[in-house]
Amino acid sequence: MSGTAPRETLTPIADTNGRTVYYDDDRGTYHTWCDDGAYEPVSTALLMTVSSVLGVEPDDLEALSECVEPDALNALFVHWRGDESRVGDGSISFRFSQCAVTVRADGEIEIDPTRRSVVPAER
């Protein structure tokens, strides 16, 4: 497991493609961590984890490309596949299948199915 280990306050609830999905009861969020050496691209890990959290098949989710460019997302986190070393501790957040998603450079994917996007008021 890369970077940060799951906090003690997280409860394991599911296993998706060899990754454990955890639930944070205090925040109502779901978390998983991806290994630096895992071959799976971040876009695939994200699809599988969101489908597990929502209890649907990955094909039933909206197209990831409607929210973020999958190839660009994979390029940002290419170090997860062991192709390159990690540089920095950044993250990216966006909406996907009605969930707020944050992908962190340390391998953590956080999914919040309850948080809604804030749309600025029109003037």
Automatic annotation (TrEMBL):
Residues 39-113 form the Halobacterial output domain. Pfam families: HalOD1. It comes from the Archaea. This is Halobacterial output domain-containing protein. It comes from Natrinema ejinorense.
